[in-house]
Design goal:
By secondary structure, the protein is of the alpha/beta class. About 50% of the residues lie in helices and about 5% in strands. The protein has helices spanning about 10-20, 40-45, 60-70, 70-80, 110-115, 120-130, 140-145, 145-155, 160-175, 195-210, 230, 240, 250-265, 270-280, 305-320, 330-340, 350-365, 375-395, 400-405, 415-425, 430-435, 450-460, 475-480; strands at about 55, 90-95, 180-185, 215-220, 245, 285-290, 300, 465, 475.
Length: about 500
Amino acid sequence: MPGGNQVPLAPEELRKLISSALPERADASGPIEPASVYLPASHLKALRPDAVLISGMRGAGKSFWWTVLQDQTVRRLLHKVDPKVEIEERTEVAVGFGERPNSEAYPDRDMLASLLNSGLPPRMIWRSVVVRHHVPDGHELKVAPTWEQRVRWVQAHPEETAKLLEQRDRELEQRATWHITLFDALDRSASDWQTMDSLIRGLLQVALDFRSYRRLRVKCFLREDQLDENRVGSFADASKVLGSRIELSWDREDLYGMLWQYMANAPSGEAERFRRMAEGIFRKPFEEVTATGDSFGGFYRVPPVEAELHKELFEKIAGQWMGRGPKRGRTYTWIPNHLADARQRTSPRSFLVALRTAAEDSDRRYPRHERALHYESIKAGVREASKARVLELGEDYPWVGVFMKALSGLTVPCDFRQVKKRWEQTSAFAEARKLCGQAKSPLPPSRLDEGPEGVRKDLEDLGVFQRLSDGRVNIPDVFRIGYGLGRRGGVRP
């Protein structure tokens, strides 16, 4: 049986392991570490070349996978984890748009605005971005100095462009590999919804165009609010793209599986002892995945096990209850539940922040506790994760902070009339319009012109507001705490 006679990890050792294993910044910035390449079953389909449209909430993994797919060595590891992903080291990957400026690879917001003002169609702009990756060095499309010249060349040479792409497709087919052009962070491509919708519509048309090839693909990582079918689906066969959309989701077992993978691959000496501890419960060994021939190394992959075994392992670390007895709920379900948004989705980034904070807080305040994580420290972790989630939301949607700040101190659930009254008393609409009217401003609420009911719907779409059956407004803890709202019997802000 796995596990042997290994000396069990003491609570203080488990706390140290969690603190050292979990990243301080759980995002896609910086180099990708093997331990962070956790592949939930629901994400497998999203990474395959034929998946052209991938969506998800902030922190679900869109930018992470956009980054991972560009890394040749990580692609090799990914293929070893599951060959069905059809992504491997020799897969050719190019960038069509991203968060970081790269004017040689794609036009930025200002360039896009200039191209549109020149009368160039969005579809032709994105088509030119993709086609340029397929022409040889020295080709006139490659050496054209401006994006307007590049787009006009593609527009003026449809037959030559088609032949170039057909030739590239045949070459890739003979080599049995793929070329994928990745698009991410499209919220940075425009500052108003009309322009954004036209750019997204054009990109989806290009993604559909390239599905007709055997080995050329366009893969788009988009926010959910960018995929309103009424706004972006007004082109022939749009349903073929929008209907094939894959959402990056995380169920409870995936969140804990990701935690075990981080702990099993920590740089500290406790990682091997943790693997033995987990294997004793799982009755299955961790699989070592390596990429031979380079210094990147490999990682230990968590074996697939039933939810009950995930719960048993976590209760070894945190105990059963969120208090002295069962009235406060089980630790295993309490954390994901209190980090979920109004649509019952938990961000893996929030989950990692909460557990790292819980370990550090337990070490500081409850060093002699019989378990590694004290339930009060878990609450502190949720509070910290809520603050981080609010900051993240503010980066993508700064206007949310304007409307939520106006509700500070309110107790939820509450009648929407109370929310509306707060917004009117604090001039929230005027402040949001001013914020979104600035140069380089973020996108405003898509329904801002519809007034309070429109903003309510926008906040519901983001998972910040929940409409109860009696019409009242509820706000999940992951946002409520960070924005300073109360709830009877809930975790205090």
